[in-house]
Specification:
Elements: H1 3-55, H2 57-62, H3 66-115, H4 122-163, E1 188-195, E2 205-212, E3 217-222, H5 228-235, E4 243-248, E5 251-252, H6 258-262, E6 266-268, E7 277-278, H7 279-283, H8 291-300, H9 304-308, E8 317-318, H10 327-341, E9 345-349, H11 357-370, E10 375-379, E11 391-396, E12 399-404, H12 406-412, H13 415-422
Parallel strand pairs: 3-10, 3-11, 6-9, 9-10
Antiparallel strand pairs: 1-2, 1-4, 4-5, 7-8, 11-12
Helix pairs in contact: 1-3, 1-4, 3-4, 8-10, 12-13
Length: 426
């Protein structure tokens, strides 16, 4: 075999190996990327379940449910392993095939060296074989690096998906028409308002049209899933309107900044929110009020004795989420925060769900006396808290089915009457 024939043979062999490498790589990348996506998706439930288990470990132990939660964790890990183990196997498959191709290169170099006996010197033969041995490692490194890049692009895809998630509206708007004292009266009007949690889902609120006058105390009641809390989410624009408008003091809230809206309305949520920091920071994060005003709000919220008994008093450090306070105390802190701000509109979303009946009565009396000049919307499960309100709105399946004074609704013997009878109020 002359030199030209040897070169042609080497080129042909290299071409075949390149084709095989490309085929192996394409097959591996297509498979491993999909497995990587499945593995990433199935890993999130493990972290979520573990976090929920750690947070509720005292309740789990109290009810003796440890085996069930261990079983759920194992099931989620097993589901994750269904994607992780095949991806590991695919990696080994690629390594074996690359080693095989590398060994083929070494074998080809040795065969061509033998076939070129008398033409190639021993030194060239040794050089070709030694370089063929190095090619095996280089080839594996190149293919692995390329496939790792494509695999890790899956993480970039997930980040891009989060980046493309629709964002909230502008926090503030330039040349805002709002006066610093807005809202001055606290009137609320909903015109054909509709709300969806996500496109394609059923309507949470359907064509809600209602006018709430200033200083009116309105109770919002209904069965679970009737749309009570969805109405509060719409007022604060946590969810944007799918149709219709909400007007506060005659201004469409969709045309103002989120900060301008949310800073002028107060809510005491169903799940009280506290941040890591001092108690005073949680009550007055912007240092807008004096200590005397803070203590006055604590007294009205029936927390003064508790805070006075703390070693650091207002400088008492709250842990993350306020875990070192009871749920009822956290709700009272949210009430004190609302009393401190005292805006013209107050929304109570099951604000007294975690306190006893006696404390509930004290809180309701405080709300009636301190927010007498405000418009109050109360989402209530305890119907006795709204029996003296100026109006009660009864919701069902996202619609307003009844709206009148509590006494008139009871006389009508409709939805509200049946709910009161179930609660032994009539």
């Amino acid at each position: 075999m002359d030199v030209s024939q040897s070169i042609d043979s080497v080129i042909a062999g290299i071409s075949i190996i390149q084709v095989l490498v490309f085929l192996f790589q394409s097959f591996y990348v297509a498979t491993s990327c999909q497995l990587r996506r499945l593995e990433s998706v199935s890993r999130s439930p493990i972290y979520t379940h573990f976090n929920e288990t750690v947070q509720g470990v005292s309740v789990i132990r109290a009810f003796g449910e440890q085996p069930r939660f261990i079983l759920q964790t194992n099931q989620r890990v097993d589901e994750n392993q269904k994607s992780y183990f095949p991806r590991f196997v695919a990696t080994r498959w690629l390594a074996v095939n690359l080693e095989f191709l590398g060994n083929c290169i070494v074998l080809s170099a040795a065969i061509f060296s033998v076939m070129g006996k008398g033409i190639l010197s021993p030194g060239i033969v040794g050089l070709s074989v030694s370089h063929a041995l190095q090619v095996t490692g280089i080839l594996s490194w190149i293919v692995r690096s390329w496939t790792d890049v494509e695999n890790n692009i899956v993480s970039v895809e997930r980040v891009k998906e989060y980046a493309d998630t629709p964002k909230e509206a502008a926090w503030t708007l330039e040349n805002s028409p709002l006066s610093p004292a807005w809202p001055q009266t606290g009137t609320i009007e909903l015109r054909g308002y509709g709300l969806q949690y996500r496109k394609g889902l059923e309507w949470a609120l359907k064509d809600i049209s209602i006018y709430i006058q200033e200083r009116e105390k309105v109770g919002i009641v209904g069965r679970t899933g009737a749309g009570k809390s969805s109405l509060a989410l719409g007022i604060f624009r946590i969810l944007e309107a799918a149709k219709g408008e909400i007007y506060i003091d005659g201004i469409n809230i969709a045309e103002i900044g989120l900060h301008e809206l949310r800073s002028r309305i107060t809510i005491i949520p169903q799940d009280p929110v506290l941040f890591s920091g001092t108690l005073r920071m949680n009550l007055d994060p912007f240092d807008a009020y004096s200590d005397e005003e803070v203590w006055n709000s604590l007294e009205l919220a029936h927390l003064k004795n508790f805070v006075s008994g703390l070693p650091d008093r207002l400088n008492h450090e709250c842990s993350e989420g306020g875990e070192n306070l009871s749920l009822g105390q956290r709700q009272l802190v949210c009430l004190a925060r609302a009393l401190l701000r005292k805006t013209k509109i107050l929304v109570l979303d099951e604000a007294t769900a975690a306190v006893d009946l006696e404390t509930d009565n004290l809180i309701q009396s405080t709300i009636r006396s301190q927010f007498e000049e405000c418009t109050v919307l109360t989402i209530a499960h305890r119907l006795n808290t709204v029996m003296d309100y100026t109006r009660v709105i009864v919701m069902d399946k996202g619609l307003i089915v009844e709206s009148d004074t509590p006494s008139n609704l009871i006389e009508q013997r409709g939805h509200f009457y049946r709910m009161c009878r179930e609660a032994s109020l009539v």
